[in-house]
Design brief:
Mean pLDDT: 83
Number of strands: 4
CATH topology of the largest domain: Rossmann fold
Radius of gyration: 20 Å
Number of helices: 7
Strand order of the largest sheet: 2-1-3-4
GO molecular function: DNA binding; DNA strand exchange activity
Low-confidence stretches: none
Largest sheet: 4 strands, parallel
GO biological process, one term: DNA integration
CATH superfamily of the largest domain: Resolvase, N-terminal catalytic domain
Keywords: DNA integration, DNA recombination, DNA-binding
Protein name: Resolvase
Length: about 200
């Protein structure tokens, strides 16, 4: 079995570009994807929420996991390394499309994997530090931060037309959530709040 795994952190990103990259690789190498797991959720969430637990249950000896880069699989270097080593132990092949040097000799691949995971974690820390420094600088310069008072901005806005259509057809909010968002890890309460704030219900 060949499984693709795609994850983006926010609704401002799109899973489609990663999916296309994986499908193009498979087409070029005459491979067939049996299952594509795609999710929109932060890496800080649990493995269960990120479908990592589901992924591990699906993979067995001789299977292949394809993802665009190793940072899609974990929140930090230790989680990533443990997952890859766990999959290697049961005979699962892992392919990272943007890190092809990980496909070679087993010892060499493990070393490169450790280096990549370390660099990915350090880059995340650096981005966080820069963000905090930028916010602090803006505060010191008297800039007001955060969402303007009494304004609305939600991750559900891009689907508002579809949500309205389903509500017009008397589809319950709970059912809309299951149809559109349950597999993406979004909460039912979030959708319910959105519908109330938009006066949709």
């Amino acid at each position: 079995m060949i499984i693709g795994y795609v994850r983006v952190s926010t609704n401002k990103q799109d899973t489609e570009s990663q999916e296309i990259e994986i499908y193009e690789y498979c087409n070029y190498n005459n491979l067939k994807i049996d299952k594509m797991l795609s999710i929109e959720i932060s890496s800080t969430k649990s493995q269960e929420q990120r479908k990592i637990c589901e992924l591990k249950n699906m993979l067995h000896n001789g299977d292949t996991l394809i993802t665009t880069e190793l940072s899609r699989l974990g929140r930090d270097m230790f989680e990533i390394l443990n997952l890859i080593l766990e999959l290697n132990k049961i005979g699962v092949k892992t392919i990272f499309l943007r890190q092809k040097e990980l496909y070679g000799d087993e010892k060499h691949s493990k070393l490169i994997l450790a280096i990549y995971a370390y660099l990915a974690e350090e880059e995340k820390k650096l981005i966080s530090q820069r963000t905090k420094a930028g916010i602090e600088k803006a505060r010191l310069n008297g800039k007001k931060l955060g969402r303007p008072y009494n304004t609305l901005n939600s991750q559900y806005d891009r689907d508002v037309t579809k949500i309205k259509e389903l509500l017009d057809k008397k589809v319950p909010v709970k059912s809309i959530w299951k149809i559109l968002y349950e597999e993406k890890g979004k909460s039912y309460n979030g959708l319910l709040w959105f519908c109330k704030k938009r006066n949709l219900i």
